[in-house]
Amino acid sequence: MTTQTQPTAPALPADTAPGVVDLQNVSRWYGNVVAVNDISMSLGAGVTGLLGPNGAGKTTVLHMMAGFLAPSKGTVTIDGKPTWRNPAVYRDLGLVTEREAVHAFLTAEQFVLACAKMQKLKDPAGATRRALELVEMTDAAHRRIGTFSKGMRQRTRVAAALVHEPRVLLLDEPFNGMDPRQRMHMMELLHSLGDNGHTILFSSHILEEVEQVSGLVQVIVAGRLAASGDFRKIRRLMTTRPHVFAVRSSDDRRLAVALIAESSVAGIEIENGGLTVRASDYGDFTRALPRIALDQGIRLHQLVPSDESLESVFSYLLEA
Amino acid sequence: MSTVAMITARGLFGRRRALMLLPLPLLLIGLAAICRAYDLDPSQWGTAVITGLGFAVVLPVIALIVGTGVLGSEVDDGTLVHILTKPLARRDIILAKFVVAVVATAVTTSIPLFVAGLLAGSAKLGVALALAAVAGSFAYTAFFLMLSLLTRRPVLLGLVYILIWEGLLGRWVSGTRVLSIEQYVISIAAKLEPTTLLDPKVGVMTAVVMSVLFVVVCTVIAINRLGSFSLAGETS
Q1: Neighbouring residues of B36: CB distance < 8 A, sequence distance ≥ 6
Q2: What local confidence, expressed as pLDDT, does residue B6 receive?
Q3: Does domain A238-319 have CATH number 1.10.1760?
Q4: ipTM for this prediction
Q5: Which PANTHER family would you find in this protein's record (chain A) (predicted)?
Q6: Mutation choice for A interface testing from B15, B73, B74, B235 by most A CBs within 10 A
Q7: Which part of chain A is CATH 3.30.70?
Q8: Closest residue of A to B12, CA-based?
Q9: What share of chain B is helix, strand, coil (3-state, %, to 5)?
Q10: What one-character-per-residue DSSP string does B140-193 give?
C-alpha cells in the first residue's frame, strides 16, 4: 500500500514572481468551426478551475497554453514568452493531459527519472524520489506502469509533470479514475502547490471538484469565456437573478412580514425549517436584514446563501 | 545513450513489433542457404534472392516497420507528449529516434544480406551488399520517420511507396527510378562489388547524392513538423 505522508508541495524561491499564463484575444478555429472565440485571461499564483460542459473548448484552451496547438488568432504566453514552437517554456511548465498514455514498459521510477533527465536536472534521482513521495507512489515505484490502475497511472503522470517543480502546472481532468482518498490527496496537493506560489490550472466538468479545490474559476461555454474570477463574486454580480437565502430566526413569520416591505426583497416563502428569501440586490438585503432583525427584536439563527454553489452559478451561465 | 534514445529503443524492442523484424531476414537466409545446398548456380537465383527479395522487400519493409515504429507508435498512443513536454530541441529528439531506427534497420538487414552475398558469390559481395543495406537504412528510415509525422497512415503510404512506386513504376517507368531508394542501394552495391547478379539502373553518383538528399531533406522536414506537433483539440 501507499505511504501516509501528507503532500507538501515544493515552495518557489522567494525572488520569483508568480508565474503568469496570459491569453490575449485568443481564438482557435478548425475550418468553419470556431472552437475557442476571443478569450482573454490572465492566471497568477494559486489554483484556478477551468470549468465548462463537454465540448466547450476547455481542452483546446489547455493545449494552446501548453504549446500543443497554435492559436488561429491572439497570443498565448507564459511569463511573456509564447508557448507555441517554444520548447524552452517546458522548464517552467508541467502538463498532465487527459489521455492517460504512459510508456507502459517502464516502471514508475524509470519513467519519472527519464522525465527528470530530459529536464536536465542536477539531481534527477533526488527529484524523482521527491516527486514520487509527493503523489504517494513510493511503494509502487518499482512496478511497471502497465500493471497500474487508472488512478496510479494518473499519479505517476502528475509526478512526472512535477519532477522539475514547474511554476505552472496544467492538468486536464486530473481527478478522472481516482478513488475518493486519492482524489482528496490530489486536491490537497494542488492546494499546497497553489499556496506555495505555483500557478495551477485544472479543467473539469464536475462542479464539486472545482468547488472543493478552488474558488477561482474560468468558465467556458461554447468556446467563449462566460465568467472569470471567484465564483461567489460572479454570482453576486448576476443582479438580474434573485439571490436565494435560507434564513432561520426566533420568529420567522414576523421577520417575513417585516422583510417583505424591503425593496431589495423580491419574494419570501415560509417553510417548516425557516424562510426562503429571494433578494433582488445582494448588498442591500444583507445590510437590511440585521437592521430589521434588531428593530423587531428577532434573533437570527441562520443566514445561508443557498444558490451560491458553483452548480447554481454554472447553470445560470449556461442559461444566459 | 540519450534518454530519448533509451525510451525509443526499449519501446521498439519491447513490443511485438520487434518479432516482426525476424521472419524476413530468416527467409532471405533460408532461401539462399537452400539454393546453395542444392548447388544451384548463383546466376539462376542470386538476382531473385538478393535484389527481388533482399533489396526490394526485406530492406524497405524492415525500415518501414522500424522507421514508423520509433515515432509513429508514440504519436498513435499519445506517449510522445511526455517527451515533447521537455525543454529539448526538436532536432535532438528526431536525431535520437533516427539513430535508433538506422541502427536497428542496418543490423537487421545487413547481416542477412551479407550471408546471402556470401552464399551467392564471395565474402566481398557479402560486404558490398551489407554496406549498401546500411546506406539504404539511412535513406529509408529518414523517409519513413518523416512520413509518420506527415500522415496518420504512415505504414499505408510507406507500402504504397515500396510496392507501387519502387515495385511497379520503378520496373516500367524509368523516370521514377531517380526517386527510388531501392535503385540507389543496388547501384551502391554494384559499385562496391561489380557482379552480373546486380543490374544498376541509376549512376552511382546519382545514387549517393540522392541518398544524402533523402536523409537531409526528410530529417529537416521531420524536425520542422515535430516543432509544430499539435494535440487534438477538444476531448472532453
Answers
A1: B119, B120
A2: 93
A3: no
A4: 0.89
A5: ABC TRANSPORTER RELATED, ABC TRANSPORTER, ATP-BINDING PROTEIN
A6: B235
A7: 238-319
A8: A105
A9: 80, 0, 20
A10: HHHHHHHHHHH-S-HHHHHHIIIIIIIIIIHHH-GGGGGG-HHHHHHHHHHHHS
Sequence-distant (6+) residues with CB within 8 A of B173 are none
Looking at chain A, which residues constitute the CATH 3.40.50.300 domain(s)?
21-231
Instruction: Report which listed range, A117-121, A307-311, B7-11, is most confident.
Output: A117-121
When CB atoms are compared, the residue of A91, A97, A106 closest to B81 is: A97
Residue percentage of chain A with pLDDT more than 70: 87
The grid cell for A187 is: 486536491
Nearest CA in chain A to B231: A68
Q: Express each pLDDT in A251-294 by its tens digit.
A: 999 999 999 999 889 899 988 788 999 888 888 888 899 999 99
Q: Please tell me which residue of chain A has the smallest CA distance to B77.
A: A101
CA end-to-end span of chain A, whole Å? 48
Beta sheet of A21-30, edge-to-edge order: A33-43, A21-30, A73-78, A81-82
The structure's pTM equals 0.83
Q: Is A161 in Cβ contact with B10 (below 8 Å)?
A: no
- Chain A residue numbers with beta carbons less than 8 Å from the beta carbon of B228 are 70, 85
Using the structure block, give the residue that is written with the C-alpha cell 552464399: B119
